[in-house]
Amino acid sequence: MLITTRRIAAATVVALIAGFGVACGSDESPTERLAGALTGHDPVAAAETTTEGPTARKAFTDTFDGMGEATADVSVNDDDTEFTWTWTLPKDRTVTYRTPVETSGDHVTWSPTLIHRSLQAGGRLLYSDLKSFDTPVTDRQNRPLLTWQTVTVVSLDAGKSESAESASASALAGKLKAVAPEVSASSIRAGLRGKQGPQTVVALRAADAKRVGSLERIDGVTTRTEGRLLTAEKNLRSPATSGLEEHWRTVVDAAAGAAVTVVNADGEPTSDVQKFPGRTPAPVRTTLDVALTQAANDAVAEEKRPAMIVAIRPSTGGILAVAQNSAADEDGPIALTGLYAPGSTFKTITTASALKAGVTTANARLACPGTQTFGDRKIPNEDEFDLGTVPLHTAFARSCNTTMAGLSTRLGDTDLADTARTFGLGVDYTVPGLTTITGEVPTADTPAKKVESGIGQGAVTASPFGMAVVEASLADRKTVTPTLIDGLRTGSNTERATIPADVATPIRSAMREAVMSGTATSLRDIPGLGGKTGTAEFGDNKHSHGWFAGIVDDLAFATLVVGGDSSTPALKVSGDFLRDAEGDLPIA
Fold first, then answer.
1. H-assigned helices in 424-500
2. What letter would DSSP give residue 450?
3. Which candidate, 312, 361, 297, 222, places its Cα nearest to that of 586?
4. Cβ–Cβ under 8 Å, residues 93 and 130
5. Beta strands 461-462 and 491-492: pairing type?
6. 540: pLDDT confidence band, cut at 50, 70 and 90?
7. pTM of the model
8. Weakest mean pLDDT among 136-140, 199-203, 584-588
9. Contacts with 291 (C-beta within 8 Å, 6 or more apart), sequence order
């Protein structure tokens, strides 16, 4: 009996509460409830206040989707006959208009004109950014580097029978061979394996799509067109362009106008609600040079092993060219981030350290025996050549390992690392639009470590980008600050330092001697060139990377051929680059 009484009492309380809620809710008119639900972006609740719930729900949902990030504030006039819509758009833009409202009992009479006076059944409002996609990214001379282009995306349906997939893949690869030889039947099949539905195979530029012609007769192939930011020319390629689109989009977005439009059920515009004019953004200007980049691309393309070139303008720090061949591409943007022993190209740092520390002088005569032992480490010259006693500049030009190893043992534990940072090696740069790693030169606190570091082996590493920074710093006699996008500053974890003239000048002279009568004589036809060759053992010490780093006019560069086994391949790539680029080299 007690339980029954409690249940009756509880039911009475619930009924009273429910009745109280209805009484409070009844103070709001149907139009006010609808306005509140729309302001809250709740299409379900909004639809329930109308006479045609499902139809209204779809219309409200479609409009909220079409307006994207815009928010609506809906209010009712005093006599419940009009809504005032105020849309707040991105960039603090607003759109305000009125719509008619009618009620039928406790509900609002549904009509598309509740949303906008011009809206028809099945239509919606649509917010659009008005962007200047034709804004180009240019090189340092305002030549187009990246432009907005229409591409045809080719897809092949996965999940068919293995025989059908194989036949379609072969047919598609055959059609694409002339414009995309890297796409093979096997690579297409590998891309489809284990997947369902259309899978993208390739995106074709307009000229290539026209050349290929129709592909949709091949079973399972579909195509669509879309816009993409691409290099202005197909053969213009560089890992330095991969991060430019993010900044380009920021520039284009900042200048964009906007429009709110009424569209019909087919998505076609029927009337404008309001337009906000944008502005034409200035082109995104970079430090890259189209002609130099193409010359570098052509040079590395001739080499079968991974090969790369990085070129920097010393007087400005502008990155002029970054190129690597398809063999290098397999390992990522290694021209900018790959770390390798720099070998004898590091002797620029060793010589500079020795001159700064006063352990030698520019005119000193030093021993260059064929081999020399330092502690338990025996250091040989290449093929154990012996020059006897020669000037420092000759030991540098002929790349005497024994001389440089001897100098390094007389240096302080941090001298090589400190000098390297003065030249930019081991410095962390934050280059807008680019991810880079220069390298690492650790403290050398034992004779063995000093010997290894002094000839660019052991724990010393550098990227081609890092060695190009070294050459650029030497040329400008200050720690260079590499840049890519005009107007955006590069961050660095090291203060810029000056390289004294009594250090830089002798090294520049020795580099010139290396080209004229030392290890780089194959390039002595290039006027004004100075440089340093390098080989660096790796792995089982049976193979070497080949380097050449140099300066000519207002251009500093580093070339690496991975597994080149000598500096000869790097010299050839460098020569092809510089001879092709003749006439395009920047002058200080």
1. 447-454, 464-476
2. H
3. 312
4. no
5. unpaired
6. confident
7. 0.87
8. 584-588
9. 581, 584
Count CA within 13 A, CB hemisphere, residue 412: 10
CA distance 367 to 388: 6
Question: Tokens 């609002």 appear where?
Answer: 108
List the structure tokens of 15.
């009924």
Q: Are 185 and 166 in contact (CB under 8 A)?
A: yes
Distance CA 561, CA 493 (A): 29
pLDDT at 19: 39
Q: Which two tokens stand for residue 16?
A: 């009273």
CA distance 353 to 295: 34
What counts of helices (H) and strands (E) characterise the chain?
A: 19, 26
Residue 254: predicted pLDDT:
95
pLDDT for the residue 25: 45
Is 12 or 551 the better-scoring residue by pLDDT? 551
Residue 185, helix vs strand vs coil: helix
- Per the structure block, which two tokens stand in for 87? 């849309």
Residues paired with residue 125 on neighbouring β-strands, in sequence order: 262
What φ, ψ does residue 147 adopt, rounded to 5°? -135, 155
Q: Cα 272 from chain centroid?
A: 38
Q: What is the mean pLDDT of residues 416-424?
A: 98
Strands (E) in 47-112, as ranges, are: 71-76, 82-89, 93-100, 103-104, 107-108
Residue 455 has pLDDT above 70, yes or no: yes
- Residue 310 vs residues 103, 195, 288, 451, 547: alpha-carbon distances, Å: 72, 39, 11, 28, 12
For residue range 376-394, what is the model confidence (pLDDT) as tens digits? 889 999 999 999 999 999 9
Strands 144-158 and 221-231: antiparallel
**Beta carbons of 570 and 564 less than 8 angstroms apart:** yes
Number of other residues whose CB lies within 10 A of the CB of residue 206: 12
Q: What does the alpha-carbon distance between residue 83 and residue 128 come to, in Å, rounded to a whole number?
A: 24
* Per-residue pLDDT, 24: 41
pLDDT over 70, % of the chain: 96
Start-to-end CA distance of the chain, whole Å, equals 104
